[in-house]
Amino acid sequence: MSKLLNAGFVRLWKNKLFYFEILIFCALAAIACFTQFREVRDYNVTITLEHSLFNCTPFILFFAAAFIALFTGSEYSDGTIRNKLIVGHTRFDVYLTEFIVNSAAILIVYTAHLLLAFMLGLTMFGFFTIPVSVVLLQLLNALFMIIALSALFTMLALLISSKSTSTAICLILVFSLFFAGMVLNSRLSEPEMYQAYMLSENGVPVMGELTQNPLYISGVKRQVYQFLFDFIPIGQAIHVSDYTFEWYYPLYSLVLIAITTAPGLWLFRRKDIK
Amino acid sequence: MEYILSASALTKSYRGFRALDDFNMHIPKGAIYGIVGKNGAGKTTLIRLICGLQEPSGGEYTLYGVKNSNGKICRARRRVGAVVETPSIYMEMNASDNLREQYHVLGMPSFEGIPELLQLVGLSDVGRKKVKHFSLGMKQRLGIAIALAGDPDFLILDEPANGLDPQGIVEIRELILKLNRERQITVLISSHILDELSRLATHYGFIDRGHMVKEISAAELEQASRKCVRVTVTNPQSALPVFDGMALEYSAVSENEIDIFSAVNISELVLALSQASCQVQSIHEREESLESYFIDLIGGGAHE
C-alpha cells in the first residue's frame, strides 16, 4: 500500500483543485477575521481569538465534498483506477489509499485555514481568553469530524463510477446535511418556556406568566434530535465553532467512519469496474 | 506447451445476461494472440476479467499458473500490462508525469526508463503538453507506454488501433511486433480490424456470444485457408454451366466474379468459357482471408 500512498500523494501535490481549495478557504478565514475586526472597531463589540478561529468550520463540508468527488472521481473518468488494479494492487489497498489521501488533503486545507485565522486573529484580537486545552479539544473534534467526512465522501466517490454523478450526489448530500443541521439546531435551541407579554389598558406592555413553548421538544424526541445533531458532521462542525465538546463526539465520528468504510470496502471489492 | 493464460468454463453474467459463457482459452507463451469476435461477443468482458477489474460469475482462469481464486493472483498480475478500451491516463498531467505516476504505483525506484519508453512509443518530443490536448493516437500510444512501465511479460491490448490514422496503425503494429520479438512479450490483442490483426497474430481465438468457437494458430489457419482462383467474367449465366460441366467447386462472390476452389487448368477453362460465349476479363489466385474465415466460422447457421 505504501506504493499507492506514495503515488496518491504525488498526484495530490500536482493537483490544482487542492491548491485552489486552500486559497479559497484561506481567503474565507481572512474575510471572516477582517469582518470581525471591523465590528470590533465600529461597534465596540468584544471578539477574542477563540471566536474567530473556528468560525468557518462548517464550510469545510463543501470543500470536502467538492474535492473528494472530483479528485477521486478522476480515477474513474480518466480510467486510471484500472492501472492500479491491473498491476496487482488489491481493492482493499486502493480504497484505503483513496481514503487516507483524501483525509490528508482535507486536513491540510483546514489546517492552512486555521493557521491563517490564528495568525490574523492573534494580530487583531490578541491571544486566547480561554484555556488552550479547550481549544485543543475542539481541534481534536475537528480532526475526527474531517476524517469522518472524508470516509463518507470517499465511499460515495468510489462506489459511483460517474464523476459528475458522484459530485452531484456529494454536493446534494452536503446541502441536505446543512439543512438538516439548521432544522435540528433550531428545534433544539427552542426555549422550554417563554415569557408572555400583554398590553395593559393604557398600551404599556406588561409581563405575563411563563408559558410553555409549543415548539419545544422533549423526552425521547429531544434525545433523538440531539443524537442526530451530534452525530452528523455538520452538527459536529457547529459544535467545534461553538466550543461545545462532549467526550462522545469523536466516538460518533469513529462510528461514522466505520459505518461508511466497512460497507464501502465490501461493495467496492465486488464492484465491476469498466 | 507453456501457457501464460488459460481459461476454463469462464462465465460472467450481468443481471441475467451471460457476456461470457463456459469460455475456454489458452494463450501460449511468446504468442501474439488475436481475439476475434463481433461487437458484444465478450472480448472486452474477457479482458476485464483477466485484468482483475471484474470477478467471474463462474469458472476460472489461470495466469502464470496461478488460479484467479488464489490470493497470489495479485502478484502474478504485476507481470501484466494492459490498455482496456480507452487509455488510462491523467488528462491534467503531461506524458512524463503520467509515466512517473505509474512508476510510483509500481514502486519502481528510478525514473530512468521514462525517456526510453516515450521514445519507444514515439512521444519523446511532446514536452510538457498536457495529455488532454493530445490526439487520440497519442493518447493510445501513451496508454501503451504506461502498460509497458513495469516491463511486463504479458501485454493486453483492447482495440489498440481504435481512432488511429493509417500511419498510427502501422506504428502500433511495428511496436507490438518489436515488443514481441525483442522483449519476448506475450500479447493478447482484440481488434475489429481483421486485416491488421492478420499481419500480427501468431494465434487466434474466435469468440461468439461469450463462447470460444475455435482456437487456431496462424500456421494452422494458413493450412486450413482455402486457396481459390477468382475469375471475372462478362456472362456468368453461361459460365456457370461450364463450371458444372467441368465438375468445379465454385462460389459466386459478385455479379461478375466467381471463386473456383478446385484445381483447374486455366487454358482449358478459358477455352471452354470462350466456346460458351463468355469472355474472361481477369483471373487471379487468392487465399482466403482471416475475415472470410471468421465469417465462415461465426456467420454460419450453427452460430446464428
Model description:
The complex is a heterodimer of chains A (274) and B (304). With 274 residues, chain A is mainly alpha-helical. Chain A is built from eleven helices and two strands, in the order ααααααααββααα. Chain A has one domain (2-187, 231-270). In chain A, strands 1-2 form a two-stranded antiparallel ribbon. In chain A, α6 (91-125) packs antiparallel against α7 and α8 (163-188) packs across α9. The radius of gyration of chain A is 22 Å and the shape is globular. In chain B, the strands form three sheets. In chain B, strands 6-7-8-3-9-10 form a six-stranded mixed β-sheet, sandwiched between helices. In chain B, strands 2-1-4-5 form a four-stranded antiparallel β-sheet. The mean pLDDT of chain B is 87. Classes of the chains: A mainly alpha (274), B alpha/beta (304). The A-B interface holds A 2-4, 6-7, 10-11, 14-16, 74, 78-90, 270, 272-274 and B 14, 48, 51-55, 73-78, 80-82, 84-93, 97, 100-102, 104-107, 146-147, 150.
Low-confidence parts of chain B:
none
How widely separated are the two ends of chain A? Answer: 23 Å
Stretches with pLDDT under 50, minimum 5 residues of chain A: none
Query: What form of chain B results from the Cα inertia axes?
Result: elongated
Gyration radius of chain A (Cα, Å) is 22 Å
> How large is the share of residues in beta strands of chain B?
25-35%
- Sequence of secondary-structure elements of chain B: EEEHEEHEHHHEHEHEEHEHEEHEH
Helix content of chain A: over 70%
Q: How many structural domains can be distinguished in the coordinates of chain A?
A: 1
According to DSSP, the number of beta strands of chain A is 2
What is the number of strand segments of chain B?
14
Write a brief caption for the model.
Chain A is mainly alpha-helical and 274 residues long.
Break the fold down into its secondary structure elements and pairings.
The complex is a heterodimer of chains A (274) and B (304).
Chain A: H1 2-13, H2 16-43, H3 49-53, H4 60-77, H5 81-86, H6 91-125, H7 132-159, H8 163-188, E1 193-199, E2 205-212, H9 219-231, H10 233-242, H11 248-270
Antiparallel strand pairs in A: 1-2
Chain B: E1 3-14, E2 17-28, E3 32-37, H1 43-50, E4 58-63, E5 66-67, H2 73-77, E6 80-83, H3 95-106, H4 114-120, H5 136-147, E7 154-158, H6 166-182, E8 186-190, H7 194-198, E9 203-208, E10 211-217, H8 218-224, E11 227-233, H9 236-245, E12 250-252, E13 257-260, H10 266-275, E14 280-287, H11 290-298
Parallel strand pairs in B: 3-8, 3-9, 6-7, 7-8
Antiparallel strand pairs in B: 1-2, 1-4, 4-5, 9-10, 11-13, 11-14, 12-13
